[in-house]
Predict the structure.
Amino acid sequence: MRAGGYAAVVDVPPQWRGSTTALAGLRPFPSSPGTPTLGVPLGPALGDQPGAVGPIVCADPISWFERGKLLGNPSAFVLGMPGLGKSTVVRRWVLGLAAAGVTPLILGDLKPDYTALIGALGGQVIRLGRGAGVLNVLDPGGMAQVADRLPVGLAAQMREEAHTRRVTMVTGLLALARASAPSEQERLGLTAALRELATPGRPTPVLGDLMALLHQPTPGMLAATLVADPDQFAAQMRTLLHSMRNLLDSPLGAMFNGPTTTRLDLSSPALAVDVSGVPDEANSQAAALLAVWADGFGAVEAANALTDAGLAPQRRFLIVLDELWRAIRAGAGMVDRLDALTRLNRAHGVGQVMITHSLADLDALPDPADRAKASGFVERAGMLLLGGLPHAELDSVRRVVDLTEAEARLVTSWSSPPSLAARRTAPPGVGHFLLKVGGRPGVPFVLRLTDAEIAAAVHDTNQRWAGTS
């Protein structure tokens, strides 16, 4: 109240945010926002004083790239300690962008953290694993269906792309199964055999068909490998045949040798491939991720081909790669595969989000070349979200992004409780993030869940702890 005397505490006045058209002439105390009102609403910005909050921060990698021209790359890298809300903020992006017409693709949900949200959005959830579902790595899926609708020239390109992806997928699986890449001669034999299996009129092949054909090569396969007879072909392919047999008889064979249980449906508003049923073994998880990535990006390629032919409108996709550390440390070739994906997201009309706990996960790779490529994931990301981090992590972070001393103190303050005696309902720093874009000052904010999100329980990743004391 005016002239009411001294006040020890001054309440924070209510705040509203809107355009100059909607709030024209509003008085008193108008101020300009710190970030543009563009993208998915995340939560209020944090002020300089403890407890002070500012306007709502709106941001996501696709909106800031496509509409705002604020990013050079429609991608984000999310970094922070476990349990502080990394997956939750990404699920908010998934939810907001799905409402804006973007199709979220969770290609390999390892925990799973996203299936409840994708189901609530009316999306498709595919389960892959031993006894849960099969993904035929020789099935071109949507690429074959789209090729039948394209003009002759584009159809030939699509079928050739499908063939190349099959070769890459099979050689990748074999490299994981035997810890070494196929030789040049073996790759020639595989390529020729896969081309034979793709002959129009043949039924969709499976890995067992490939094995049988390698035992009985056609004249075209002999010519491709420069041998005169089947016996010479068998001698050159002996090691490959042993590797194929080992692959088919391994647990991986049960996941990949058979008709695909459920194909990706990109007409769905959202999609998740749940691979939580795949055992926590390096080769198994690496193989599952490779297969899902190949299938998912093949489907995106098919959708883009329809657009290029004038048969469908341009689609936008958001691909989420969570638990990045598991993927890149799962097996040989994983870093190269991820490196190729991160370089192609703009060309494919794809926004991309990568999530991990620590940059030390990338530094732990044994191959120096892999470490250099993995660090490029962070450097090329258009947007960086930093959750709570320990002091030891700051040196690694500063190698890829500038942090002021104030920003560093803020990020580390979110990683540990101020008092061990304090009783809390949530971990300290949960939902707190620092948004960094290039060399600009960071924008700290706290993620606020809506009542609808809380009621739907789509963000609860600790359900197995529910009901315990």
In short: The CA atoms of residues 11 and 52 lie 11 Å apart. Residues 34-102+316-458 form a domain with the Rossmann fold fold (CATH 3.40.50.300).
